[in-house]
Write a structure and sequence with these properties.
3-stranded antiparallel β-sheet; homodimer; mainly alpha; two-stranded antiparallel ribbon; 55% helix
Chain lengths: 391, 391
């Protein structure tokens, strides 16, 4: 049965407000030490109390976003504030970098040689600056953004050894996180330098898109060239779909109409190559030449690529008016709701095998927190509400 | 049908000498630059030419071991020598540490903040010292062994940040690799210090064995205590089975009869908890309290735990005379030969899903090379030959 726009909206609202948000409000808040529990079993009981900084920052952003854009009387600002207080108090090393993980009490466990801990810290600060009007948070967000930019340009400062044979190209994640941070920051901060960084990052992102092969690569060489190694052949369809909607947001925000057809192509190709025709769902990783991917988990079906696909296809339909994107959306929604939803308890599973059966009964972990699901659902709800208003 | 000792010996000889060794001789040697290709597809074609140092060192060891213990006229010494020449020329950083990976030509790609690149370098040097009588190789092995020992005692020298919340217990892998290196080195080098290190490592290993719970933990606290975190609850049954036969070798070598019952328990418990009663095969990882393991691949069936189980169960039977270990061996052999062997091409698959179907059609990769399979088969062949001679 085809679900119409209105009943889709109802479905997503119910899923977001009656299922996902209450699960995290009930089980995800550490009311003793602050911050969030994310390693939660099927019923919401923590199986680890460690605090992973990507997910701490993302949860702050998500609760603050709900406060800013949905309702100011649901207590979401407090839930965001206590998380921000925790990461501002414990989350940064003496040199200003963000840790990767903390104990429940806030002692640092690990720091990555990557920039992403910092990225989600910037997101948290920015959305909280928007929620509270705090100039202090915005200053910190800005300062950390430029630190991330510097670290990205000089990876040796992250402690990553750059040896003569080390791959020196770009990873798709990097331009994407800059576009993502700027989407948030530029709303509050009129610094013209964001435009130059945006242009650079769009340029870098598009190097990963290969119209000749109708696909998107995770890693390309320094000059944007294809590199015939497992790393150079790697594709991550869910990641490409996330990039597609980042580009569509940018197109709308900055009047970059030229980006629309590029983004739509990415949706087409990612669904074409990434969708498992036998068992359904999006593969996690693929090798563009059909070689064996190095990742053991390559054929697993994860919640987050499905979340990115959910929103990217709906937005592609909204922007283009082409019904095939709505059909793709239906396919994604149908598979996701049949396989990722847990009939016995709230929140979705995170990890399924190729056939779509859960390999883990957890609802959150070191990588799955209060972020991809509620973000995708919120964005779908907001899109459908805008359309309903226009109609 | 029950396979008898004699036909088992025939089976393993065929598998080792007609299947596995020829595959690596034919496809695994880089005759242009030296060293080994390990990223090989189903039919032996390289899908990456990068050289992973764990596997380079292991392949040197394996070819040299075949030369030393099986036949001196099969060209195996040359195949080992060209690998050792490659890693001696390109494999070590200016500070003496071993790299993790090199390009085909020998340029360093990556260095890990772990000691295992060095460990397999020591193994390679030692077995080649034995093969050639080279005092130079033995000196290098010895020097590198003590470097590894120092690095293990001062992990900060590896560049791993030790932060206030960082887990400070022991990982089972660490005492195991020291026992493994000493098993080789002590054959050639009468340094009494190995005995003290052995005692220390046996003591550390046995802290991971928990008779109260009938299981073996991968990580325990500094005082050997159970740590109730995902890391502390982690089990890796294949790894525990590998430790069991290390301990049985040590018991035999050093007259440590007290270790025999400890090792046999480990075999029992690992097969009891690690074997998948629904689909067969050994799980890769488990949480000892049944919580969701953090590893996405936890329920996959890998070739190497099956290889460790193959030899550990056979050796347990040989040492104890108890028929239940031969039954376990039968179960392991039957499942391994049915699922890991490729009916279409030589060498075994490396990675199966929980049901035992291949997720990757590769025969080698960044972690699978010329090591676990031929080592397990050689050890089984040698054991069965010794028994046949005695009978």
């Amino acid at each position: 049965m085809r679900i119409t726009g209105t009943s889709l909206l109802g479905t997503y609202r119910t899923e977001l407000f009656d299922n996902v948000i209450p699960f995290w409000e009930r089980h995800g808040i550490d009311r003793e030490y602050g911050g969030y529990f994310t390693c939660l079993d099927r019923y919401g009981v923590p199986f680890s109390t460690d605090k992973y900084m990507w997910l701490q920052g993302r949860a702050v952003w998500m609760f603050a976003r709900l406060h800013n854009e949905v309702a100011r009387d649901r207590g979401w600002l407090d839930l965001a504030q206590q998380g921000l207080d925790f990461i501002r108090r414990f989350g940064r090393a003496p040199d200003g970098r963000a840790y990767f993980s903390l104990t429940r009490e806030g002692l640092p466990i690990h720091i990555q040689r990557k920039i992403y801990g910092e990225v989600f810290f910037v997101m948290a600060l920015t959305e909280m600056a928007r929620a509270t009007g705090s100039a202090q948070y915005l200053d910190e967000a800005r300062e950390l953004f430029w630190l991330v930019y510097d670290l990205w340009q000089e990876p040796a400062r992250l402690g990553r050894p750059v040896l003569p044979g080390t791959f020196r190209g770009t990873a798709l994640a990097d331009p994407m996180v800059f576009l993502c941070m700027i989407e948030e920051l530029s709303r509050l901060d009129a610094d013209r330098r964001y435009e130059a960084v945006t242009d650079r990052m769009v340029d870098l992102s598009l190097r990963h898109v290969r119209p000749d092969r109708r696909l998107v690569l995770e890693n390309v060489g320094l000059a944007g060239e294809f590199v015939d190694t497992p790393q150079g052949r790697l594709m991550n369809p869910g990641h490409a779909l996330e990039m597609a909607w980042f580009l569509l947001h940018l197109a709308r925000r900055a009047g970059r109409d030229d980006l629309v057809p590029r983004a739509l192509e990415i949706v087409d190709w990612s669904m074409e190559l990434g969708w498992d025709r036998e068992f359904g769902g999006l593969y996690y990783f693929l090798d563009c030449n059909g070689q064996p991917p190095m990742q053991l988990e390559w054929n697993m079906k994860l919640w987050w690529p499905m979340c990115e696909a959910l929103y990217a296809t709906l937005l592609a339909w909204d922007v283009s008016g082409e019904s095939r994107y709505l059909q793709m959306h239906e396919t994604v929604r149908d598979w996701a709701f049949r396989h990722l939803r847990d009939p016995e308890a709230p929140e979705w599973f995170g990890y399924l095998d190729r056939r779509g059966e859960p390999t883990h009964l957890l609802k959150g972990g070191a990588w799955k927190g209060f972020f991809h699901m509620p973000r995708a659902l919120l964005y779908c709800v907001q899109l459908l509400e805008r359309r309903a208003t226009r109609e």
